[in-house]
Amino acid sequence: MVEGYPDVGWVTVCPDEEVANDQFREFHLGDQPCFLFRRRGELHAYRNQCPHLGIPLNWMPEKFMDLDNCFIHCATHGALFTPESGDCIAGPCQGDRLIPVKVRVSGGVIEASL
Ligand code: FES
């Protein structure tokens, strides 16, 4: 659970088979926008909130990666985040990180929790 946010428990996002490698899925936990994706077979999930200004990272639905498909990219000022850790490695919030969201697969369904 993230301090300051209500615990909404585990929320069903979508069937596991709908998220292939390098595919993203946006969803909400309570009123918190979040996104998840699969990279090299592993699921990762974060709050959709840039640590620089606290606004969503993407301008286009489910488009979060830079042109080289290496880093999560903030569309507003160009901060770059390591997909596996959420660490900001370049941009105005370098040294900060995305807020992770817990994610699991249960009975063929992806579930997420703060
Ligand atoms: S709002 Fe994301 S880098 Fe400024």
From TrEMBL:
Question: What InterPro entries does the annotation carry?
Answer: Rieske_2Fe-2S, Rieske_2Fe-2S_sf
Q: Can you give the residue ranges of the Rieske domain? A: 10-112
Magnesium is among the record's keywords: no
Keyword Transferase in record: no
Residues in the signal sequence: none
Q: Which UniProt keywords apply?
A: 2Fe-2S, Iron, Iron-sulfur, Metal-binding
Q: Which PANTHER family match?
A: PTHR40261, RIESKE DOMAIN-CONTAINING PROTEIN
Its name, as the record gives it, is: Rieske (2Fe-2S) protein
